[in-house]
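Hi R.,

Here are the chain sequences for the assembly we discussed:
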Amino acid sequence: MTLEKTPKPTESELEILQVLWQQGPSTVRVVHEELSKNKEVGYTTTLKLMQIMAEKEMLEVDKSSRSHIYHPALEEEKTQQQLLGRFLDAAFRGSASKLVMQALGNSKTSKAELDEIRNLLDKLEGGSK
Amino acid sequence: MTLEKTPKPTESELEILQVLWQQGPSTVRVVHEELSKNKEVGYTTTLKLMQIMAEKEMLEVDKSSRSHIYHPALEEEKTQQQLLGRFLDAAFRGSASKLVMQALGNSKTSKAELDEIRNLLDKLEGGSK
DNA sequence: TTCATTTTACGAAACCATTCGTATATACTT
DNA sequence: AAGTATATACGAATGGTTTCGTAAAATGAA
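And here is the predicted structure of the full complex:
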């Protein structure tokens, strides 16, 4: 059985992952331009970061054309789940309900989304009746 | 109007804050012993961290007795709110409902807690009925 | 082919959190 | 008072991320 790593992307790495999850496989330039919308950053900085991420096996690279094409080696949902687990413990001492209450209380969430959540609640409570 | 900082405790700093939030004002020794339950760490390391946190004004210190007594300068809920906001953006691109669904789906939350959440949903949706 | 543009490669610097050794101060014990 | 234990103070080493300058390679244009 292969040793399962638990990748822990840094903040900058996560920004890059988000771009790639959203846009699909992309060149450094595309990622860099996307990041530049939110903050000042040098091209080679982005490049270096993505190269390091590839070394760490968080990204995979297609080097067949001159402009290498990167894509995430991590699934978005799995990664979110891991990050969430850590964050839950670190910030809310593991209390999921506290986290959920604060998340709902402090963000304008659409009625449709609230309904979706309510459905999930029904399913969860139904099972334990 | 005073300039409002947005403190960004690191992981280690957050661990210390959690102890202080939970136990109330404490000496370095008490905090250190609490931390030691979960991981190996030297006493002076904890001391130094807490001193740095005091410099950053995340903690306040009562130096009137030999063993200084530290307490958080930050409110637990406010801090959680800020951390949650950042985390939400970084990990879930701002989608609170996605975060909530994953948090609920992947943690055993008691019926009482689920009901509490349902109540909140009622209140939130009630307004738009 | 020559020149300009774009890309990757490499390495070093800057920065920051974390760790801890050692020194010094304070209080307690006998 | 002398010795022991416990506390704080200080400074430096470590380790990791982030940043970017510079060079080399690949491509495209004139």
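Residues 27-29, 43-44, 47-48, 51, 66-68 of chain B lie near DNA strand D (CB under 10 Å from a C1'). Chain B has two domains: 11-72, 77-126.

Let me know if anything looks off.

Best,
T.
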